[in-house]
Amino acid sequence: MLDLVKAEALKITTARSAWIIVALLILGMAVLGFSTGVGIKQVGLSATPETTPTLAEPIGPIEYIGSEPLFTGTALMAVLGGLTGASEFRHHQLRTTFLGANHRTQAFLAKLVCLAIFLAVCSFLGAWTAFTTVQLGLGGLGLDPVSLSDVSWRLIGKAALAWTLMGLIGQGVSILCRSALIPILVFIPLSFGLSDLLAKAWKLAEYLPTAAAGALTASPVHPAPYGEARGVGVLTIWLLVTVGGALIAFTRRDVGAR
């Protein structure tokens, strides 16, 4: 089992696509966070739509300002999980894996554990970058970008948890489909507002995984339809369904790509 974990860790950390996604995450959070902070600094923390017509809504508490760009991380981590899960099915790479250890359940668990650790580290760094660069953009109006605040650190932790679970869900979907295309086509639009539009027309859309991820980092300005505890529960259910289905498919069907 340990050899499988080492092999999977090597695959993830040497995959070019994984590091491209991580670079996009860190760079995107830095750019979005800093530009958000600069924009708010120009109008002031107390600005409202009444006093500043360019604002669509009031500015939230300073501890929550870094949560605005987080939807981008939700999409990127789901895509990263999808790319990682589908990578083995390209060019029949999984057959090579089983030559060294012909135990599918252990191979699947090794993939899951390694990806979870990688996602957790990258997610934490991405969320921390978003909150830190927002405060840098705010300048003297912001919090100390090093120490931040207790609320900000809790939001960073909850964002890292939500992104990690989304990445694992993306992996499960890609293994079920033997393709990364489905997670990309589904989770990117949902993360960038489609889930909110669907929720307005269909109540059950509030329980899509992207909506549940948003509940963990909701701000007073953008409240979620339910609390973070339910959000974790919804994400856990999606995780169990997708990863459980992926495990069954991984261990019972042919390992080749379609």
Structure, explained:
By secondary structure, this protein is mainly α. The chain has one domain. The protein is built from 9 helices and no strands. Helix 6 runs parallel beside helix 9. The longest helix is centred in the middle third of the chain and has 35 residues. The radius of gyration is 20 Å and the shape is elongated. The two termini are 28 Å apart. The mean pLDDT is 86.
**Rg for CA atoms:** 20 Å
Helix content: over 70%
Tally of helical segments: 9
Biggest beta sheet summary: none
- The H/E string reads HHHHHHHHH
Terminal CA distance reads 28 Å
Quick recap:
With 258 residues, the protein is an all-alpha fold. 71% of the residues lie in helices and 0% in strands.
Keywords:
258 residues; mainly alpha; 9 helices; 0% strand
Give the SSE layout:
Elements lengths: L1 H12 L2 H28 L26 H18 L5 H8 L3 H35 L11 H28 L3 H21 L7 H8 L11 H25 L6
